[in-house]
Amino acid sequence: MSVAGLLTAPPDPSTFRPMPETSLIYRGAIRVARAFLPLAALLNAKLRKAHVARAGVLDRGRAGGAAHRDTSRPLVWFHAPSVGEGLQAESVIEVARAAHPDWQVAYTHFSSSAEGLARRIRADFADYLPYDTRGDVDAILDALAPTALVFTKLDLWPELATRAAARGVKVVLIAATVRPGSGRLGWPTRDLLAPGYAALDAAAAIDPADAVRLSALGALPDRITIEGDPRFDSASAKVAAVSASDPLLAWWRDAPTLVAGSTWEMDEELLLKAFIRVRREHPTARLILVPHEPSAGHLSALEAKAAALRVPVQPVRHSAAEGPVDLLLVDRVGVLAALYGAGQIAYVGGGYRRAGLHSVLEPAAWGIPVLMGPRWTESRDAGLLRTAGAAVGLPEVGGAEDPVELLYRTWSGWISDAAARSKAGAAARATVDAGLGASARSVAVIARSIGRR
Asked: Is 7 among the domain residues?
């Protein structure tokens, strides 16, 4: 039946479901959390920045809605909590803009780290997400009057989802993934969040296992489909956008270079220790360290660590480099995607931290093999690369196997054996290619939901 037919056909009572609502306990917990946020913000600079920025978000939303909202056109409101999820949303937004030029787009984020991305995304309105209280939610829904509300990955806010659904707004979840050990699956969190998932008109899960866990959270099984992960599209597009003449690529291509991205202290210590051994066997080997947080204090500590370990080459900061150097410390942000293309081998940081591994898809999109710490098991992408023979996971520090030894042997082996390195790199790129297309499929899910209004 056509959309027009659905709009005029008599209602089918068998399709009616009670409209979900958040519990009094959830609403009370949100009010208490909001009351204590100013105190918590005193101890956390990022939280403080976001809390201050939210102070005027409702006024900015009203002004943005008054200035830009054309109610004769659909408005699709995308929400993503931080940068990683924002890149997934951006990839979907770009496809949506091309496929549906009549759509208006709003974009919100939760973390202050996504401010720069929010300024870049092509949206009619972009800002922080208000807190998930009934008053703030109703105010922003009044201001933006969305046709569809699209959450990214798992950052679904129950009050916003249920209040939007009650207005007839189509609530969609894209790039939906639920880690096996996610705290959302346990009591009481699952019960508190369940109304938000029950409000979903559609959920585009990354893979079948995620679909099962989404159903456990409260999403209706008949509204869940498997559409893949837009991050593959995002990583591929980011790599394709790097100019072949970029000096970041040219400087390091004349020597075997390992690019270590989004590193933390433990990553860097292991890399420096292994680098000392690799240099003995391969005197032309180079290392580029790209800390996840390249603050002045972190860089100074990293330079002191290199001196204490007696690394045989002097580290040079990127801002002071006038050409290729043997040990580069990157003291700026926004260049990692290009720098991975300067290497023959990649190391992705975060695998020695509780929060887990950072994204492995950008180096994979360059077609280079990946090294990573042991806490890769909750990264679906890392698992795919390991299965394909494109990545190696290091063991925990203090375990039966020495991570420095394995890091040294793998790094040195890939330098010595260009064929093995090339094979692993080709498998990495093939893994990325196999995951392309999820952004377009996600847009199709949103469009179908809008068509069912």
From this structure: no
**Residue 101, domain CATH:** 3.40.50.11720
Q: Are residues 287 and 212 in the same domain?
A: no
Tell me whether residue 252 is in a domain.
Answer: yes
Token code pair at residue 380:
């679906």
Residues 444 and 427 placed together within one structural domain of the fold = no
Query: Which token pair is 304?
Result: 């002191």
Longest pairwise C-alpha distance within the chain: 79
Helices (H), 122-178: 134-144, 158-166
Co-location of 32 and 171 in the same domain = yes
Instruction: Read off the pLDDT of residues 363-393 as tens digits, 9 standing for 90 and up.
Output: 999 999 999 999 998 899 999 999 999 999 9
Q: Quick one: angle between helices 438-451 and 83-99, nearest 10?
A: 70
Determine whether 346 is exposed, middle or buried from the number of CB atoms within 10 Å of its CB (0-12, 13-18, 19+).
buried
**Backbone torsions φ then ψ of 127, nearest 5 degrees:** -170, -175
Q: What predicted TM-score, i.e. pTM, was given to this entire model?
A: 0.90
Element (H, E) at 127: strand 125-128
SS3 of 187, please?
Answer: coil
Task: Report DSSP state, residue 169.
Answer: P
Element (H, E) at 122: none
Task: Tell me the pLDDT tens digit for each residue of 387-440.
Answer: 999 999 999 999 999 999 999 999 999 999 999 999 999 999 999 999 999 999
* Pair 317, 257 in one domain: yes
Rounded to the nearest 10 degrees, the angle between the axes of helix 438-451 and helix 231-240 is 130
Q: Is there a contact between 104 and 76 (Cβ–Cβ < 8 Å)? A: yes
Q: In total, how many domains does the chain have?
A: 2
Same domain, 150 and 268: no
The rounded distance, in Å, linking the Cα atoms of 190 and 186 is 6
Range(s) of the domain holding residue 145: 17-228+437-451
Closest to 199 (Cα-Cα) out of 150, 245, 237, 247: 150
Q: Are 173 and 156 in contact (CB under 8 A)?
A: yes
Radius of gyration of the chain (CA): 24
